[in-house]
Write a structure and sequence with these properties.
Blueprint (H helix, E strand, L loop, with lengths): L2 H16 L1 E8 L3 H11 L4 H9 L5 H19 L5 H4 L1 E19 L5 E17 L2
Antiparallel strand pairs: 1-3, 2-3
Helix pairs in contact: 3-4
Length: 131
């Protein structure tokens, strides 16, 4: 391995030690609806994001709330004895990708049929501490 590649790999490993993530796959919600909620909390402090998701009327916010709690518990597993308030955590990155699409057929008038696409998504959430 070349020197530049080795240095970049070492820097990447060091960065991964301070970031904590959680992923949610095949969520049966359309990516567009999930992105609305994800954009609402992107870059927020973790405590504020938990409160915002808990009281949001959107259905996708319940799933993101549980995912954020999972990422926080991953952080707590590495930093035993630490509290969220002291960690100064924020949502560094939240990515919503399209998942598999179930294709169904719905009968239409005069012998026709319409295609129904039931969309799903994958969500990846990364939290980090502000220095």
């Amino acid at each position: 391995m070349g020197a530049r590649k080795h240095n970049r790999a070492e820097a990447y490993k060091a960065e991964r030690k301070t970031t904590y993530m959680a992923a949610l796959n095949n969520v049966p919600t359309s990516p567009r609806k999930m992105r609305l909620v994800a954009d609402m909390v992107r870059g927020m402090n973790v405590e504020l994001a938990l409160h915002a998701l808990q009281y949001s009327p959107k259905e996708a916010s319940n799933r993101l709330y549980k995912l954020l709690r999972s990422a926080v518990s991953n952080w707590e597993a590495k930093n035993t004895g630490s509290r969220i308030e002291d960690g100064n955590l924020y949502i560094k990155e939240i990515i919503v990708d399209a998942g598999r699409m179930l294709k169904r057929v719905q009968p239409a008038p005069q012998g026709r049929a319409h295609r129904i696409r039931k969309r799903s998504n994958h969500v990846t959430l990364v939290i980090d501490s502000r220095k």
